[in-house]
Amino acid sequence: MSILSPSGLETIDYRLPGWNFIFNKDFEMLAKQLLYVNHLLDVNVPSNHLKIHAGAILVWDTASSKFIAKQVSV
After folding, report:
1. Concatenated DSSP letters for 5-41?
2. Which of 1, 41, 67, 68 could form an S-S bond across to 58 if both were Cys, CB 3.0 to 4.6 Å?
3. CB-side neighbour CA atoms (13 Å) of 17
4. Measured between alpha carbons, how far is 26 from 20 in angstroms, rounded to an integer?
């Protein structure tokens, strides 16, 4: 059992006592810290783009110092 740096995730061998507790704790941490896009506080979505459509990407806008949604064509 060890703690990974810098993530703070804990490792344990499968089926050792407590493995499922550590597995669940690690996934909760990942969900809270890494996987939620709503943690991006510096995103600017113009009022005329209430929905970000499929194919849009976030691009850094130096003028506003925020990410903005840009539509890309494939």
Report:
1. TTT--EE--TTSTTHHHHHHHHHHHHHHHTS-GGG-T
2. 67
3. 0
4. 10
Peptide bond into 6 cis (omega under 30): yes
Cα–Cα separations (whole angstroms), residue 32 to 25, 28, 38, 58, 70 = 11, 6, 10, 21, 26
> What percent of the chain lies above the pLDDT cut of 70?
68
The residues facing 3 across adjacent strands are 10
Which secondary-structure segment (H or E) carries 60? Answer: strand 56-61
Instruction: Give the confidence band of 43 by pLDDT, cuts at 50, 70, 90.
Output: low
Question: Per the structure block, which two tokens stand in for 60?
Answer: 């850094």
Nearest to 33 by CA among 8, 65, 67: 8
- Kindly report the number of other CB atoms within 10 A of residue 45's CB atom: 15
